[in-house]
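Q&A FORM
Asked by: J.P.
Topic: structure of 7-deoxyloganetin glucosyltransferase-like

PROVIDED:
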Amino acid sequence: MESVERSHSGSAVIFHTFDSLEQEVLTSLYSMFPRVYTVGPLQLLLNQIQEDDLDSIDCNLWKEEVECLQWLDSKKPNSVIYVNFGSIAVATKAQLVEFGMGLSKSVESISSGVPMFSWPSIGDRQTNCRYTCNEWAIGMEIDSNVTRENVEKQVRELMEGEEGKKMKKKAMEWKRLALEATRPGGSSSMNLDKLVTEVLFS
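REPLIED BY: S.T.
REPLY: Here is the structure written out as tokens.
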């Protein structure tokens, strides 16, 4: 709440999203704040920079573990499910066991064309789940009463079922829009340029 209250005194409000993903919300924000900049997905903006210019830029706070990438490269396309409990995860041991037996960063997943599972528990996860499952149509909500049977059923539906195919198609559409936003002339690319000239150098 404090961040929202203090945002009115800032010289700009910056969001890690892209215009077409959250247009309705952004339209409201544009009417409340004089300078709103959408500059996401950042990893796609970084892809626009020449490789040798990236030596000093990293969008990850942790050292990359390449063993994981090597393992992923050894798997068939679309055969691995990524599980992310977020920065703060509150789950009982039994719930974690059920997940493990049956079996997200939102913007990163969207820009990669990846459908998601949502298991909302605290904070903004309820809102993220609503957008992922209802607004963007790229996710399935896992019931709070986690059972391995239900998780397995949903994983199979997402990976092999008709509903999963629809979500994958929609996720690929969002990926296309994210790529458009971050290409030269795209909304996020232009917003990053405007942020630099209008806020940082003004």
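FOLLOW-UP: Strands lie at 13-15, 36-38, 116-118, 139-141.
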